[in-house]
Structures are given as C-alpha cells and as structure tokens.
Specification:
Layout (H helix, E strand, L loop, with lengths): L11 H7 L3 H7 L12 H7 L4 H18 L4 H34 L9 H28 L10 H13 L11 H28 L6
Length: 212
C-alpha cells in the first residue's frame, strides 16, 4: 500500500522535506525541489518524462526500508537518534556556518553565490537546538516512562530547508567552484539529508509507537 505522503497531488518540496532519500531520487531524475518544488509529484513526473507509478514505487521503497532499519526497541531508537542525529547536527552546523560565511564573503559577487545561506543555517541551528533540547530534557524521558508523545510541528524546519535549497540552487555547484565552496555543499547535502532522516524517524516511527 502506498504511503499517503506519496499522493500524486503532494508537492515535490514537501516529499523531499519529509522522506529521507527522496531528495537524492529527485536529483537523479532531474526533478527540482527548489524553484520547481511546488509542482505536484504527478506534474514533476510528467515534466521529467517519468512514469508516475515507477517514481512512486522508488519513493515507497525508501519508506519501507526506513521502517525496517529502525531499532525495534524504543530505548535503542532514542539512543540512536540522539547519537546519530542530535550530536551530529550540532557538530556539523558548528563547522558549516562559518564556512558558509566565508563563501558568501569571498564569492558574494558571483551570480550563483549562496547569498543568505549563513542566516538560513543559523536559523536551522536555533530551530533544531530548540527541538532537540526539549526532546532530550523532557520528551524522550516521558516516552521512556511510557507516557507517549504528541506529534511535533515541523513547519519551521521544512521552511528553512526550503530556503537552503533556494539560495544554493538545489546545491548546484558552479563551474570552477573553489575547495571551500565544494566542501560547503558536500557538507550541506549530508546535513539536509540527515535532518530529513532524523525527523522522519521521530515523526513516523518513534512518536506513533504506543506507550509502553
């Protein structure tokens, strides 16, 4: 059965922001989730000359794989989320924010300079830190006590990820980009993919689990 997230009328941008691995599939298919991200999945498939059913099946495979790979025990899943995503986001943003500032400063006059990226990354850092700190101090302990969890509001995070895609032209490196610019976009691709995977694990796997 196809997940409701993959309904043909849902936008490419929304799917890319919520499903880990979807951004990679869209890049490989030359489907933009930046400027063209407001197209529906059906419209994007038609524009790219792809069969909608085949594209949807590839995306559904990602959902099935994510469910199979998640630790089955809730304490193990929470530990995995904190170590693999919370700690990693904090470390990588600490590296990427000054790197983004350097690229904007040095290459600000370039037509494809990611102007506004530093500000977007700082907003992402603050947004994630607020969510992660609340989870670590209150929400995760409550889940482990068997109290369950309410669905989180991820609208702000998705909006910031969209801003990052916009200002970086979907992480497209210009011809002849320097080493710093290349390292920045390599790190950003991993960060953005990780954020989507992190929130998916929480929203679609951890939080819906019944209280112990």
């Amino acid at each position: 059965m196809t997940d409701p997230l993959l309904a043909p009328e849902n936008t490419v941008r929304d799917i890319a922001a919520k499903l880990p691995g979807a951004a990679r599939i869209f890049r490989e298919a030359d489907i933009s989730f930046c400027c063209g991200g407001e197209r529906s999945l059906r419209e994007a498939a038609e524009k790219a000359g792809l069969n909608l059913t085949v594209l949807t099946t590839r995306l559904q495979d990602l959902i099935d794989a994510a469910a199979q790979e998640a630790p089955s025990e809730t304490p193990d899943l929470i530990t995995h989320i904190v170590r693999r995503y919370h700690d990693t986001h904090r470390e990588e943003l600490g590296f990427l924010i000054p790197l983004a500032h350097r690229v904007e400063t040095v290459h600000g006059d370039h037509d494809e300079a990611p102007l506004g990226l530093t500000q977007a990354l700082m907003a992402l850092r603050d947004d994630l830190d607020t969510q992660m700190s609340a989870e670590e101090s209150a929400l995760f302990p409550a889940i482990l006590r068997g109290e369950g969890a309410a669905q989180a509001d991820r609208g702000q995070t998705a909006s910031i990820l969209g801003r990052i895609a916009d200002v970086t032209h979907s992480l497209h490196l210009p011809l002849g980009a320097c080493g710093s610019w290349t390292a920045l976009y390599t790190g950003l691709r991993k960060l953005c993919d990780d954020v989507v995977a992190h929130l998916y694990l929480e929203d679609r796997i951890l939080f819906p689990r019944p209280a112990a």
